[in-house]
TrEMBL record:
Domain Pyruvate carboxyltransferase positions: 5-267
Protein's name in the database: 2-isopropylmalate synthase
Gene field: leuA
GO molecular function, one term: manganese ion binding
Enzyme Commission number: 2.3.3.13
Gene3D superfamilies: 1.10.238.260, 3.30.160.270, Aldolase class I
Cofactor: Mn(2+)
Length: 526
């Protein structure tokens, strides 16, 4: 008999902890909808006490979903748990996920409390959460380095206190598969009330073993696995959902376990995430890498031509790689546009859809054919939803082998209902850098370029170039991602930089409001 394994997706929480992978509320909701379409069982949408923006995002995801359980994370503190409750209570099915570290290194060096005190706090946190909601998960942070007998005591106590799910994370990716299998088996066999809760796994990838450990834990009897799309997450990332799901599907007989994930949605979800965070997966990444189903060598090609099963252990179609031939163009209307976007996983609000449709028409006038990549790009642009204080009015550059690259920009600055135009000129090592310097001068926001990526998002000579940049602005606590696109790379780069400046301005505004205790509803844009 095949056991059902619950899939707990934490792309929007642990995944978002990857540097430069922050998402705004609109983006989180779009991804959450796609995750629901994929049929994940639980979506962890954020850490509500962390900021007003995170709270709003969890609340909005909770409101947007129809059937998936929406979880929020909280420390083992009443204030955190209550804030989490305020956000997840908007879901049809809300879960409070609370945690406390249990390894001696974390207890002694970080929390500075004894094992007995940690046990007491864990139980108190679960009881407090259970008074608010029925569905409570407790995580023993750094379980991978926790003493096994103490771990069993904590697991037994939190189940007794009302936790329906108990998570045993390998927080720092320290364990190896055989050892992790033994650890989970130990807990499953020793804890007397273990059948009253689902045991969950949450494996990090510091030694590249996140997926292997997750599969070992499933074999040992765990009923829930926590993971992220594309394996994004703190440090080296989390176990990649697509790899776990396809391993269980491809080796179903071996594992005698399955998930309810609609695997044909995997590619679409992976691409949606990449386009939101501006981070591509490596070409040789299992399941979702560009080369995952490509065959280059003659012997392989010969084999595949004879019978695909010689070199393919799963079909590209099973992960949603089937080619779509529907081409939209300038004669297409709103219905076809909306329908295709929905097929691609984008359900945009009517006002965003209208702007996206206008952009699509403008692009269709310039390009012969519009491909899915163009549509994905337009939809992602629409989801940015960042209030625009700065709008690029003009950018012009001069460059060549014997002139110093110089750029002139005009920025429209909107503030409190008024508008003014500011024009600045600057030089740089290249034309792109010159335009960034000129934008710094015009906006007054001084940024330093950390990463620059340009990619043709569609096919043909008239392809749209998608520019993604990561900028560290002075006075800002995090790196900001800016995106811009144009058939002209210099124009796309300037648009990306202005986008980043708008996000920096929004973030500084948000920090100002949090410091002044103003909890008026805002959504975080970076
Ligand atoms: C393994 C994981 O991924 S855990 C999740 C990690 N994610 C995050 O931390 C993102 C969200 N975090 C935040 O926004 C902030 O850290 C906050 C709002 C939670 C706390 O901010 P601050 O109050 O400024 O505290 P700071 O982050 O500097 O330190 C953490 C504090 O929480 C305590 N703490 C850490 N884990 C827990 C826990 N599970 N339960 C209770 N307290 C905890 C630490 O001991 C420390 O306490 P102290 O301030 O009394 O020394
Ligand atoms: C809080 C828990 C689930 C976590 O993220 C970890 O241990 O890595």
């Amino acid at each position: 008999m095949s056991r059902k394994i619950m899939v707990f997706d934490t792309t929007l929480r642990d995944g978002e902890q990857s540097p430069g992978c922050s998402m705004n509320t609109e983006e989180k909701v779009a991804l959450a909808r796609q995750l629901e379409r994929m049929n994940v069982d639980v979506i962890e949408a954020g850490f509500p006490v962390a900021s007003i923006g995170d709270f709003e995002a969890v609340k909005s995801v909770a409101e947007a979903l129809d059937r998936t359980i929406v979880a929020g994370l909280s420390r083992a503190h009443e204030k955190d748990i209550h804030r989490c409750y305020e956000a997840v209570s908007h879901a049809r099915r809300g879960r409070i996920h609370t945690f406390l570290a249990t390894s001696d290194i974390h207890l002694e060096a970080k929390l500075k409390i004894s094992r007995a005190e940690a046990l007491e706090r864990a139980v108190a946190a679960v009881k407090y959460a259970r008074n608010l909601v029925d569905d409570v998960e407790f995580s023993l942070e750094d379980a991978g380095r926790t003493d096994w007998d103490y771990m069993c005591q904590v697991v037994e106590a939190v189940i007794h206190a009302g936790a329906g799910t108990v998570n045993l994370p390998d927080t720092v990716g320290y364990t190896i598969p055989t050892e992790f299998h033994e650890m989970i088996s130990y807990v499953m066999n020793r804890v007397p009330n273990i059948d009253k809760a689902v045991i969950s796994l949450h494996c990090h990838n510091d030694l590249g073993l996140g997926v292997a450990n997750s599969l070992a834990g499933i074999q040992a009897g765990a009923g829930q696995v926590e993971c992220t799309i594309n394996g994004i997450g703190e440090r080296a990332g989390n176990a990649a959902m697509e790899e776990i799901v396809m391993a269980l599907k491809t080796r179903a007989n071996y594992f005698q376990a399955h998930t309810d994930i609609v695997t044909e949605e995997i590619t679409r979800t992976s691409k949606l995430l990449s386009s939101i965070i501006g981070v591509e997966v490596q070409p040789n990444k299992a399941i979702v890498g560009k080369n995952a189903f490509a065959h280059e060598a003659g012997i392989h090609q010969h084999g595949v031509l004879s019978d695909k099963r010689t070199y393919e252990i799963m079909t590209p179609e099973s992960v949603g790689l089937a080619k779509n031939d529907l081409v939209l163009g300038k004669h297409s209307g709103r219905h076809a546009f909306k329908a295709r976007l929905e097929e691609l996983g984008y359900q945009l609000k009517p006002e965003i859809l209208q702007t996206a449709f206008e952009k699509f028409k403008a692009l269709a006038d310039r390009k012969k054919e519009i491909f899915d990549e163009d549509l994905e790009h337009i939809a992602t642009e629409g989801m940015k939803q960042v209030e625009e204080w700065f709008v690029l009015d003009y950018v012009g550059t001069t460059a060549g082998s014997s002139i110093i690259p110089t750029s002139c920009v005009t920025i429209r600055i909107r503030d409190n209902g008024s508008e003014r135009l500011v024009t600045e000129t600057a030089i740089g090592d290249g034309p792109v850098e010159a335009s960034f310097h000129a934008i710094n001068k015009a906006t007054g926001y001084m940024g330093k370029l950390l990463e620059y990526q340009v990619k043709a998002v569609s096919k043909g000579e008239d392809a749209v170039g998608d520019v993604t940049i990561k900028i560290q602005f002075e006075g800002l606590d995090r790196v900001v991602t800016g995106k811009g696109s144009s058939t002209d790379v210099l124009h796309g780069s300037a648009l990306a930089y202005v986008d980043a400046a708008n996000k920096a301005r929004l973030r500084l505004d948000l920090i100002g409001r949090e410091q002044s205790g103003d909890s008026e509803e805002v959504s975080e844009g970076v």
